[in-house]
Design a protein that fits this description.
- This protein is of the alpha/beta class.
- The strands form five sheets. Strands 5, 6, 7, 8, 9, 10, 11 and 12 form an eight-stranded mixed β-sheet that branches.
- The protein is built from 15 helices and 19 strands.
- It has three domains: about 50-135 and about 315-380, Rossmann fold; about 140-255, Beta Barrel (OB fold (Dihydrolipoamide Acetyltransferase, E2P)); about 385-460, Helicase, Ruva Protein, domain 3, CATH 1.10.8.60.
- Bound molecules: adenosine-5'-triphosphate (ATP) and magnesium ion.
- Adenosine-5'-triphosphate (ATP) binds near residues 38, 91 and 421.
Length: about 475
């Protein structure tokens, strides 16, 4: 459980939030993503891959290589380089990249995209790439601000007659009592701050701070004194703040250069960097010009030189990189060589292919050789039956499915014959069949029936005649 007093980007769940919905409806609404069993790279502290760990089975070489990249990114020594993951479909390239992002933690930006995302009718291809790169460079801003901090001991809105209507009453001000180890203080606050407090669901017993000059309220967590004896809880408990209620406090906030660009493309009052961040608007695509980026860079450089901010290079992950075209590749070369470049991870399942945007340039993985030259290339291996069985079992656990005797072996066999993804894919539909038959676990027969209903890629390919059509329409 986190006990940091630094405001985290993911707001803590308020203790007085609505209770979680009953289990039945959660089960129905929660969606299990294809990679939700992957929790990390599963490496030992020495950087060696366990045969299976953190949801990752086998692929030890590639995992160890990714582990090295994680270390390099963390020690900020990998900028301007690229890691290229190559391997057959379904061998875990995307899973590896996600594991890297887990290992880096939330503080290091990770910006995933798919090659085909660059083809937008509104924005230039190179612009999409540039933006992804900016989103992968973090900025940790430390600011000392005047705040009132403490545990809420009192929260009393004072009401007054509403001058606009004869009936209702409005809040004229609010009295808030704050307590620290050193003392207590009673504040008389503006009703807008009261609204902010209601929004943050602040109640007596919470530790909060209020910024003195903006009135922004932040809930740090629940005071230790109110800690309950539950074993598992979503609440963050924090100790009673030290020092005076009214003090100067160092606040840390993480943003990316992309956030700053976007915020400045639509400036909304406020000159200091924090208020710029406060006005972040997430909706809509706005034009970010090269000139604006330079301006932002200049401001950022100023802050870095003053020691107010620190640059945290992150990772851009471009999946299906063979979808980029020659224009994008040359731009990528340039981006890689710029002084403030994040780490780049590329993935592709192509062998030799024509580079998109050219008619005759054939290159390994459809990536031009000059870019390949800048890459460390890591290959993912295909899986054996035993490994496929392990992954299928992991998926069954994640999806909450029970497997009858022999099912795992059967699915592993299917996986070896078709592909691992096909074997994993069979799980959920097979559970529907078993459910229809009134059983709560998947039996070998369900898999058999699935094979009659559906084809795997290879079986489907066998139906296609040499002329590329279906055999005499005899399907
Ligand atoms: N070593 C592994 N351990 C556990 N799960 C794995 C492993 N490799 C792959 N998977 C799982 O198998 C599925 C397919 O893998 P993934 O999507 O990463 O393949 P890919 O290499 O990106 O394929 P493609 O080239 O088609 O994009 C995913 O659900 C992934 O989480
Ligand atoms: Mg993939």
């Amino acid at each position: 459980m986190k006990t940091t007093t630094v405001p985290s980007t993911s707001a803590p769940v308020a203790h007085n939030a609505m209770p979680p919905p009953p289990a039945a409806s959660t089960a129905r609404s929660s969606r299990v993503a294809p990679h939700s069993h992957i929790k990390g790279l599963g490496l030992t502290p020495e950087g060696l891959a366990l045969p299976d760990g953190a949801g990752f089975v086998g692929q030890t070489n590639a995992r160890e290589a990714c582990g090295v990249v994680v270390e390099l990114v963390k020690s900020r020594k990998f900028s301007g380089r690229a890691l290229l993951l190559v391997g057959a479909p379904g061998t875990g390239k995307t899973a590896l990249a996600l594991a890297v992002s887990h290992e880096l933690g939330v503080k290091v930006p990770f910006c995933p995209m798919v090659g085909s995302e660059v083809y937008s009718t509104e924005v230039k291809k190179t612009e999409v790439l540039a933006e992804a790169f900016r989103r992968a460079i973090g900025l940790r801003i430390k600011e000392t601000k005047e705040v009132y901090e403490g545990e809420v001991t009192e929260l009393t809105p004072a009401e007054a007659e509403n001058p606009l209507s004869g009936y209702g009453k409005t809040v004229s001000h609010v009295i808030v009592g704050l307590k620290t180890v050193k003392g207590t203080k009673q504040l008389r606050l503006d009703p807008t701050i009261y609204e902010a407090m209601l929004k943050e669901k602040i109640v007596v017993g919470d530790v909060i701070y209020i910024e003195a000059n903006t009135g922004a309220v932040k809930r740090v967590g629940r005071s230790d004194a109110y800690a309950s004896s539950y074993d598992l809880e979503s609440e963050t408990y924090v100790p009673l703040p030290k020092g005076d209620v009214h003090k100067r406090k160092e606040l840390v906030q993480d943003v990316t250069l992309g956030d700053l660009d976007a915020a400045n493309a639509r400036p909304q009052g406020g000159q200091d960097i924090m208020s710029v961040m406060g006005s972040l608007i997430k909706s809509g695509r706005t034009e970010v010009t090269e000139k604006l980026r330079k301006e932002v860079n200049k401001v950022v450089k100023g802050y870095v030189d003053q020691g107010v901010a620190e640059v945290v290079p992150g990772v851009v992950f471009i999946d299906e990189v063979h979808m980029l075209d020659i224009e994008c590749f040359t731009y990528l070369n340039a981006l890689l060589e710029s002084p403030m470049a994040p780490t780049v991870i590329l993935a592709t399942n192509r062998g030799n292919a024509i580079v998109r945007g050219t008619t005759d340039v054939v290159s390994p993985h459809g990536v031009p050789v000059d870019l390949l030259d800048r890459c460390l290339i890591v290959k993912t291996d295909t899986y054996n039956r035993e490994q496929i069985a392990k992954v299928v079992q992991l998926r069954a656990n994640v999806e909450g499915l029970k497997l009858g005797p022999g099912v795992l072996e059967r699915l592993a066999e299917e996986g070896e014959r078709g592909s691992m993804r096909y074997a994993i894919q069979l799980l959920t539909p097979a559970s529907i069949l078993s459910g229809l038959a009134g059983r709560n676990q998947i039996e070998v027969d369900d898999i058999g029936e699935m094979n009659e209903l559906f084809l795997d890629a290879k079986a489907s390919a066998r139906n296609i005649g040499s002329d590329g059509g279906f055999d005499g329409g005899r399907m």
